[in-house]
Amino acid sequence: KPVKKKSAAKKKLPPPKCEYVRMQRMWYVENQIDGSKSEVEFKNKNESGYLYKCQKGSTITFKGKGKSIQIVNCEGATLIFDDLVAGVELTNCKKMKIIAKGQCQMFRFDKSDSILTYLMDPKNVAEVQFACTMCGELNVDFPDPKDPQNETITKAIPTVFEHKIDTTNGKIVSHVSHLY
Fold this sequence. Notes:
By secondary structure, this protein is an all-beta fold. The chain has strands at about 15-20, 25-30, 35-40, 50, 60-65, 70, 80-85, 85-90, 95-100, 105-110, 115-120, 130-135, 135-145, 150-155, 160-165, 170-175. Strand 13 and strand 14 (about 150-155) form a beta hairpin.
């Protein structure tokens, strides 16, 4: 008799969580389901954010100025934030949208694919660095330095390099990553 294979049961996510842990000064936003909207407000610039297993269609908004945001194992979520002292780190993520409304110094992408980063503040564009390892399909969208009121430029980000945006000519300048 042929043996029937049992299909693997779909793993159920734990309940969604959005809470602040005072001892770590960190906001934990975890297991957000499709279509959910979470809003977090940084009370001071020493607070960080941590996103884990946020699903397709969920939107997470961080208001105010914080330290950094880490994103792990998320797929199809959208992150919106005002200002960060340090930056954003993505690990094992797919199809993410990151919208930086204000200041952010660094974006680090590890083992991530199909990431679209929007830089909204034209003054911040020249300060941003991108560091990428084992990634694919990374793009950045930023205001055109010649016409910041109306147009944006979308550029692909090569991987295994650190990148900065040169506002004088709207090009991306690349250097070998400091990791090598």
